[in-house]
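Bumping my old thread because nobody answered last time. Still need a sequence for this structure:
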């Protein structure tokens, strides 16, 4: 056991997140008590306030039905509340074990009604009635209400809109108005609603709204009617059910108005139950008569306005961004009207945030916007769960990246969410504003999205500051921002047409196309006023008519005035309650005699004067502070303690003219206010606000005019005295706003200087927040406080005020004011550096005004003061001299070593670097000859004094000069790398974008592939956005797009990127860059879509006839050169030779506009091509001029190609090819064309590869080489197809119809551009938007884009079915297409759904290809009807409504909702979609039908594209096969020619030898016969003859010599047979079939392969078994059949060789053969090929089998596929069997079959018809 505040604890009763409840005993008398303490060692202020509030409210209540507090004790770090213990338990716990009878319920209910009546009498709102807070004694059943921790002693309370999880009270029981999302205050009737929920739970055992989702539960309380309790439990009497439902009415006026009335009805029920045993229905609330005057808070006469407001939110929820302006007089009900939008916001889980402009705080920049987002962070985001907080942090971190500090600087609460953020780099003012704008836009996008739309309400826009309006305009014109509704309320009588608000609205309408709606809120008419008065008086309208007429005359129908006037009548006791009739009455005569003012402010001032004098004093001070104020500030200016100030404010709270913003006001609960200060804890910030602006104005009017300045001055001084030094920065706006209003009363110079310094601080802070107009006002106020001697007395203060004011004036576009201030500084500044600062401002200002020459003059003047001399009229001599000096300075310097220079420290030189850098932009535009000189000076300063931020850009620009002007590419490239190296050394990245852009766009391309320089431009683009350098961000995006175009990026993707970046340039207001971009975008459009006159750059994006004069007027030589370059390219590509030549000539005049950029060499490239294109049509004299020009161009190109061959070598080669063509050098031209094609392909310039192929094709076509030309032109065709240059593709089709016939006949159409798809889709969506407001266009666009991106047919069909099912709400779907004249189910989809959910759990998609006539899963009659009529067919309930109800499928399956519609493309039906839903009828609504119409349009386009893409792929595949087959055929042809040649060469000498051998044999026989005669005649020869005969073995010679000659004769016969076989194999087939001997063909093939059949090394010989049948001669192509025999027999030999090799390798490695089933285990040394022929019916069959290792089924399936081979890489092409199959099947209409088993060998069977009709090859 332990003690709390000296009380002994006996048991724990209850524990929650916030509190612990114990039972204990009081020291001394052991009285049992209840002890309630915070459930935290260190409780929050809020937790202590609640304990304090419970004690303060209940301690003086002596009511039997209320738990009485005994004391409030200190306990450790908190408080302990001691309560009486009457041994009760909570009603919730009691009913768990004690089911209530009806009598028990009534008995308990009556006691609770008594308790609520007591609270009502004591003007207390409990705010947390629920079973847990109602205690019951288990034995006596006495009931008491407890827990007054959030209760209120005010008659009404207003709630701040917070996250539902942070609402006061218990979410399941709170009333609609207690959610903070109803347009009304909270009063005592909120407890009746909570009691109704409690009764409902007691009676039914369940809550009326069961949900674990907080937002959903809030929505239910506001908008959903509960099921009556007697429907859930029929035993509940109807009367009791009616009582419960009345208690739970959504509007307080519909509930019981008194607890007495409720008690009376409960007692009636109890009496009936006790007397009759049952409760009969009766009229309830008959005794419910309120004795307290209540003015209804509902809106009157605003039905139309509410409807329009709801419509605007519906549009925003669907994805739009809108501005809704609500105009009307003060008090007319603008704010009340806007609050009505809470209901739909809840339904969409959106956020509602609001801010209010204050007439006394108009100099505080962005104040209402900051207030709105502070509340969003504080009351919504930070109150969510840890998981949700983590999600928010992740999303915000991703959106803000490393620049979160930008937002934290204005919304400090964000740091609680994101943590400490990196320090921001300092940027120039313009860049700083750009950064702020961009980051704030990203910040907003996190909160405004489809999951939670955002509504931003800004009140009192008539007092909006310029900075806030500009930021608002920026947000509304953000094309990437959606789901945002900005509602602005303003007093139209205070806003003229030239008011800044109206000017902003006009700009948005005229230039941005933002949807703007207006609601004019008029005064209430007489009828509406009468209805309001009748409801307030609770009387019939006929009775209220006279008084309402008086009210209307007095107030003119102003709702606020009406309610305040009625309230004054009640307070003046001019209204009295007539209990007999149940309504309020008044004395009309007395009312008429009232001298009430008809001015609302004067009237409210009169009402305020009824309050105690101290309260009036406090209110006047509060009015000076602002519409919303905090107690601490008020106490300071009131010069009393917090408690005393709170006490004096209490009367205003009770009167309702001031409203507490949060519950923390309860910290000071009583009239004395002292109790709050007794708590030893940190005092919270207690916030209040005035009931209405007019109340604040009325309070302010109580200050006499002569005293107002003094009052503000006093307030300011008191605030300054009580603000610690470190907090002045945070509160500087509040301080200065008060002091400036009283500045005229300040006499002391010291005080004036002090206030001037504060104004400088406020101006700097406003300027840092990019609020330049308020900054200038503060700075001007500071300047006005200076003395004439201030330059001497307070030099630094005076200087800084003038400098800051000059910069703010420039940034506010008040240039004359800037000039005036700058002149003063230049006259008065004491040091050079002080003057330089104003020079920088002037240069920026002149540049912003497009006064480039003035900017340069100012820069020269400043630089001269800094010792840097620039020529007045720069010339080429100056540049030459500057280059010479630079070369001499850098002769002994390694460029890379310059990165090691120290950082520049000399202040003068750093200033000079800044001035030089700021002069580059105006010099580039107006004095290009000065630009190099500026760069030279920067480089020299860096060499002499070290590197600084500006050095990075200077080095990059110097690299540009070296590459583009000097031609020193190597050194220029080194300086580019140096720039990047030095850039990485400096934290300040303000020049990062321009440095990276120059390096990559102007330097790297001369030595590196262009493709590698493109990605860094996006990095530079992002850096430009981050640092606010929007000019270079736009330039980087532009150069990224055009360099991607030059590098050959696919045009469809490029166009999409160009579109996106063009929107960005437009948003950044980079007009010049946007014009350049649109020029190239139009070129891309010409290439994709074509144009009637492609040589003219005229279209929707760019019109040269409009833009050319503008370019000439502004001397924009870059634009002029780019224009003529693009006209040159288009003219040349579309073979407008003369136009191309002409454009090249004009463009050459503007080449000085292209310095070190890729378009320059591109111009020379096309210039040469254009010249050579017209060369042969020119006279000889002109030809020489043209040739010299081309040679000059090629000299440049050759040098560039030496440094960057990837970019320029193919261009050089292509021009050389064209030169060779012109000269007639065929061999040179062919070689050069091929090299150009090869280099372009290797460098990935697909468009220039296509161009080279095209020119080569034209060249060969002119030579008459049709087939070769066809090859090149086909390559060109597909190159342009890959580039997506559809217009060029079409041009080729039209120019070469015969050459490209085999392609065009396959209907290969150009790829459909994604942007075209989106464009056409947008047109469709616009036409139906008015008829389908609920259509979610964002979803449709995403789905359509998803379809447009898929080109593979099977994948497209899968995606199509998913998209259709998801967007249609269908369970089943079928896509039916036409195939070979039949309707075929091409794809089907089905949603598998086990439970009812709001999402699709899974979708099964299959592609079937089943004929429609073979299926029974569709109503065929319905599908056929749609197919034939082309109509959209929607059936809500097919089984009962449809004329197709007799269809067998519908009869059998009884489907409900059916939708069937055609998919049409270019007026022709290409498919049918059938959708079905069997869960419910009427699923396919009008909105869904519109969605599907849009999707079907896109589906038709995408389906056609997918088909065409399939055809295209097939065409490409066929072309590859044809090319390789051609190669293979050429190989066979070459082999045949070789064999034929060898045979011919052998045959001639062989015939000679063979013929002479026969003669030699005869001669030898004659000689031998003659020798025998000699021997016979001279048997005894002489000795010499005898010896010689012995030596030559004459006897053997006589016997062997004839045999040798006969053997030689046989050899020549064999050779003749071989030659004959070779000639037979190599025969040339004529163009028709001929009869041939199959056996002879096989034998000749075997003969050729005989060497491969022999044994070699370890491989045994291959034996061939020939089993020839008796077959006739066959009609065939003999040569082609021989090719088949060659392929099959050679493959068999390869298979046998590989099997033996594998076997031998296994044996050699010692591996077992048992696990290698693919090798034959037996007879491994026996290799046999068996060839068998036979006749089968009308065919000849040739079997070629081997006993090799065999093949698997998987291999056999791919055997005849092109390029498939089982041989090692490099050993086979994969063409032999494919070609063989084509020869047998396609040429001979036969069959080529294969049978094989692993380990059992392979057999090929050829079957060809014996007799065929003659066919042409």
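Sorry it took so long. Here it is:
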């Amino acid at each position: 056991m332990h003690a709390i505040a000296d009380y002994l604890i006996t048991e724990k009763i209850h524990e929650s997140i916030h509190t612990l409840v114990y039972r204990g005993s009081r020291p001394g008398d052991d009285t049992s008590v209840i002890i309630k303490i915070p459930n935290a060692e260190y409780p929050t202020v809020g937790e202590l306030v609640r304990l304090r509030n419970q004690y303060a409210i209940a301690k003086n209540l002596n009511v039997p039905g209320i738990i009485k507090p005994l004391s409030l004790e200190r306990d450790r770090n908190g408080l302990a509340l001691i309560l009486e213990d009457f041994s009760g338990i909570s009603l919730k716990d009691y009913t768990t074990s004690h089911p209530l009878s009806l009598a028990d319920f009534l008995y308990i209910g009556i006691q609770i009604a008594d308790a609520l009546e007591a609270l009502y009498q004591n003007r207390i709102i409990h705010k947390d009635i629920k079973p847990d807070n109602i205690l019951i004694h288990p034995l006596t059943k006495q009931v008491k209400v407890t827990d007054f921790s959030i209760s209120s002693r005010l008659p009404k309370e207003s709630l701040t809109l917070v996250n539902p999880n942070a609402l006061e009270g218990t979410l399941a029981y709170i009333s609609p108005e207690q959610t903070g999302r109803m347009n009304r205050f909270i009063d005592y009737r909120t407890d009746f609603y909570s009691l109704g929920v409690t009764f409902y739970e007691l009676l039914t055992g369940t809550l009326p709204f069961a949900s674990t989702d907080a937002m959903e539960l809030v929505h239910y309380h506001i908008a959903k009617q509960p099921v009556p309790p007697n429907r859930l439990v029929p035993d509940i009497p109807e009367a009791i059910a009616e009582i419960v439902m009345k208690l739970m009415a959504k509007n307080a006026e519909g509930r019981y108005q008194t607890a007495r009335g409720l008690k009376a009805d409960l007692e009636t029920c109890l009496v009936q139950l006790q007397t009759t045993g049952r409760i009969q229905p009766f009229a309830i609330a008959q005794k419910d008569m309120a004795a307290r005057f209540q003015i209804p808070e509902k809106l009157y006469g605003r039905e139309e306005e509410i409807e329009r407001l709801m419509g605007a939110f519906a549009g925003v929820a669907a994805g739009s961004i809108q501005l809704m302006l609500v105009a009307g007089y003060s008090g007319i009900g603008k704010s009340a009207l806007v609050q009505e939008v809470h209901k739909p916001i809840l339904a969409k889980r959106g956020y509602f945030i609001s801010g209010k402009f204050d007439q006394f705080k108009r100099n505080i920049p962005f104040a209402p916007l900051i207030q709105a987002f502070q509340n969003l962070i504080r009351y919504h985001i930070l109150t969510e769960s840890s998981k949700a907080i983590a999600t928010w942090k992740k999303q915000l971190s991703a959106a803000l990246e490393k620049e979160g500090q930008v937002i934290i600087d204005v919304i400090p609460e964000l740091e609680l969410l994101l943590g400490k953020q990196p320090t921001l780099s300092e940027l120039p003012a313009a860049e700083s504003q750009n950064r702020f704008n961009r980051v704030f836009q990203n910040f907003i996008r996190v909160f405004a999205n489809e999951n939670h739309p955002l509504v931003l309400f800004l009140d009192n826009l008539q007092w909006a500051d310029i900075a806030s309006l500009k930021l608002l305009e920026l947000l509304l014109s953000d094309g990437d921002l959606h789901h945002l509704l900005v509602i602005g309320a303003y007093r139209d009588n205070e806003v003229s047409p030239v008011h800044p608000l109206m000017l902003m609205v006009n700009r948005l309408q005229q230039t941005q196309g933002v949807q703007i709606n207006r609601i004019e809120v008029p005064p209430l008419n007489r009828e509406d006023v009468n209805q309001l008065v009748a409801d307030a008086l609770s009387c019939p309208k006929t009775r209220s008519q006279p008084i309402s007429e008086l009210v209307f005359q007095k107030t003119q129908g102003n709702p606020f005035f009406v309610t305040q006037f009625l309230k004054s009548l009640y307070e003046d006791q001019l209204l009295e309650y007539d209990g007999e009739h149940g309504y309020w009455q008044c004395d009309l005569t007395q009312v008429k005699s009232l001298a009430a003012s008809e001015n609302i402010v004067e009237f409210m001032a009169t009402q305020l004067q009824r309050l105690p004098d101290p309260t009036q004093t406090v209110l006047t001070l509060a009015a000076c502070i602002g519409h919303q104020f905090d107690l601490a500030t008020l106490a300071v200016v009131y010069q009393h303690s917090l408690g005393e100030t709170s006490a004096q404010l209490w009367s205003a709270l009770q009167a309702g003219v001031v409203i507490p913003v949060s519950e923390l006001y309860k910290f000071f609960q009583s009239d004395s206010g002292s109790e709050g200060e007794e708590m030893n804890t940190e005092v919270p910030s207690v916030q209040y606000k005035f009931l209405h602006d007019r109340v604040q104005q009325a309070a302010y009017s109580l200050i006499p005019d002569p005293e107002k300045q003094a009052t503000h001055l006093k307030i300011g001084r008191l605030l300054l005295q009580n603000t610690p030094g470190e907090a002045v920065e945070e509160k500087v706006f509040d301080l200065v706003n008060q002091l400036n209003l009283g500045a005229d009363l300040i006499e002391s110079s010291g005080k004036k200087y002090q206030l001037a310094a504060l104004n400088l601080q406020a101006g700097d802070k406003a300027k840092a927040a990019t609020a330049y107009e308020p900054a200038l006002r503060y700075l001007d106020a500071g300047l006005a406080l200076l003395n004439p001697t201030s330059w001497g007395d307070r030099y630094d203060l005076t200087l800084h005020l003038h400098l800051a004011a000059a910069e703010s004036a420039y940034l506010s576009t008040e240039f004359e004011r800037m000039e005036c201030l700058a002149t003063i500084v230049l006259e008065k500044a004491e040091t050079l550096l002080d003057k330089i600062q104003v020079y920088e401002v002037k240069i920026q200002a002149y540049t912003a005004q497009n006064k480039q020459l003035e900017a340069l003059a100012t820069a020269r003047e400043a630089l001269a003061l800094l010792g840097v001399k620039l020529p007045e009229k720069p010339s080429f001599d100056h540049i030459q001299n500057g280059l010479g000096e630079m070369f001499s300075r850098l002769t002994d310097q390694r460029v890379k070593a310059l990165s090691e220079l120290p950082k520049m420290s000399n202040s003068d030189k750093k200033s000079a670097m800044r001035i030089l850098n700021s002069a580059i932009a105006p010099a580039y535009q107006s004095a290009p000859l000065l630009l190099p000189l500026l760069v030279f000076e920067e480089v020299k300063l860096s060499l002499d004094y070290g590197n600084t931020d500006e050095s990075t850009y200077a080095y990059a620009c110097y690299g540009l000069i070296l590459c583009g002007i000097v031609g020193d590419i190597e050194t220029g490239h080194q300086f580019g790398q140096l720039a990047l190296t030095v850039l990485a050394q400096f934290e300040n990245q303000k020049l990062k974008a321009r440095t990276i852009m120059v390096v990559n766009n102007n330097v790297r391309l001369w030595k590196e592939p262009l493709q590698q320089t493109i990605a860094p431009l996006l990095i530079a683009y992002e850096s430009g956005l981050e640092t606010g350098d929007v000019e270079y961000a736009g330039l980087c995006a532009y150069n990224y797009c055009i360099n991607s175009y030059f590098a050959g990026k696919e045009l469809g993707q490029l166009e999409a990127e160009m579109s996106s970046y063009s929107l960005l340039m437009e948003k950044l207001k980079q007009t010049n860059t946007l014009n350049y971009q649109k020029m190239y975008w139009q070129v891309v459009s010409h290439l994709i879509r074509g144009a009637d006159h492609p040589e003219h750059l005229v279209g929707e994006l760019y019109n040269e006839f409009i833009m050319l004069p503008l370019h000439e007027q502004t001397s924009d030589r870059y634009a002029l050169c780019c224009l003529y370059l693009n006209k040159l390219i288009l003219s040349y590509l579309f073979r407008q030779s003369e136009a191309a030549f002409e454009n090249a000539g004009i463009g050459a005049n503007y080449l000085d506009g292209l310095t070190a950029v890729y378009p320059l060499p591109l111009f020379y490239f096309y210039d040469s091509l254009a010249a050579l294109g017209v060369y042969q049509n020119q006279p000889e004299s002109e030809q020489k001029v043209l040739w010299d020009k081309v040679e000059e161009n090629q000299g440049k190109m050759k040098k560039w190609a030496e440094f960057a061959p990837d970019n320029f070598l193919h261009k050089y080669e292509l021009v050389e090819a064209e030169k060779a063509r012109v000269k007639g050098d065929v061999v040179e031209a062919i070689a050069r064309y091929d090299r150009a094609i090869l280099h372009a392909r290797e460098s990935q310039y697909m468009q220039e590869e296509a161009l080279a192929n095209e020119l080569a094709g034209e060249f060969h076509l002119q030579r008459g080489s049709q087939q070769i030309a066809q090859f090149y032109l086909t390559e060109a065709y597909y190159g342009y197809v890959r580039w997506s240059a559809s217009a060029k593709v079409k041009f080729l089709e039209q120019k070469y119809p015969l050459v490209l016939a085999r392609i065009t006949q396959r209907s290969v159409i150009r790829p459909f551009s994604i942007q075209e798809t989106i464009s056409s889709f947008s047109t469709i969506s616009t036409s139906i938007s008015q008829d389908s407001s609920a259509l979610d266009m964002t979803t449709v666009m995403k789905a359509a884009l998803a379809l447009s991106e898929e080109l593979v047919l099977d994948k497209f069909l899968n995606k199509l079915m998913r998209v259709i099912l998801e967007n249609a709400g269908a369970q089943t779907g079928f896509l039916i297409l036409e195939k070979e004249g039949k309707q075929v189910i091409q794809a089907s989809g089905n949603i598998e759904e086990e439970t009812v959910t709001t999402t699709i759990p899974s979708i099964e998609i299959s592609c079937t290809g089943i004929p429609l006539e073979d299926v029974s899963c569709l109503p065929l009659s319905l599908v056929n009807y749609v197919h034939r009529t082309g109509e959209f067919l929607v059936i809500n309930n097919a089984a009962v409504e449809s004329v197709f109800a007799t269809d067998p499928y519908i009869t059998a399956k009884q489907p409900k909702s059916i939708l069937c519609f055609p998919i049409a493309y270019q007026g022709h039906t290409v498919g049918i979609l059938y959708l079905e839903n069997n869960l419910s009828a009427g699923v396919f609504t009008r909105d869904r039908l519109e969605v599907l119409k849009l999707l079907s349009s896109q589906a038709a386009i995408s389906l056609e594209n997918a088909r065409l893409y399939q055809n295209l792929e097939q065409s490409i595949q066929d072309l590859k096969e044809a090319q390789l087959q051609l190669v293979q055929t050429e190989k066979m042809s070459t082999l045949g020619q070789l064999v034929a040649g060898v045979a011919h060469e052998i045959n001639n000498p062989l015939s000679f030898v063979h013929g002479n051998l026969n003669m030699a044999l005869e001669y030898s026989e004659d000689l031998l016969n003659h020798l025998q005669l000699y021997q016979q005649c001279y048997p005894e020869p002489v000795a010499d003859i005898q010896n010689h005969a012995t030596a030559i073995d004459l006897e053997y010679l006589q016997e062997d010599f004839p045999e040798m000659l006969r053997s030689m004769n046989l050899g020549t016969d064999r050779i003749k047979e071989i030659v004959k076989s070779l000639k037979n194999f190599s025969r040339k087939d004529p163009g028709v079939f001929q009869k041939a001997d199959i056996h002879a063909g096989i034998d000749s093939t075997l003969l050729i392969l005989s060497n491969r059949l022999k044994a070699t090394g370890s491989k045994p010989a291959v034996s061939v078994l020939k089993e020839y049948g008796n077959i006739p001669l066959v009609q065939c192509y003999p040569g082609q059949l021989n090719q088949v025999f060659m392929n099959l027999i050679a493959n068999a030999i390869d298979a046998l060789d590989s099997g033996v090799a594998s076997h031998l390798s296994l044996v050699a490695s010692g591996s077992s053969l048992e696990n290698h089933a693919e090798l034959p285990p037996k007879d491994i040394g026996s290799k046999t090929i068996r060839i068998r022929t036979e006749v089968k019916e009308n065919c000849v069959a040739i079997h070629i089998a081997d006993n090799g290792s065999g093949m698997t089924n998987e291999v056999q399936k791919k055997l005849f596929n092109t390029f498939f081979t089982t041989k090692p890489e490099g050993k086979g092409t994969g063409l032999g069997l494919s070609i063989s199959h084509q020869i047998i099947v396609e040429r001979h209409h036969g069959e080529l079959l294969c049978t094989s088993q692993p380990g059992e060998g392979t057999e090929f069977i050829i079957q060809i018809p014996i007799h065929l009709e003659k066919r042409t090859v």
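DSSP finds 72 helices and 33 strands in the chain. Let me know if any region looks off to you.
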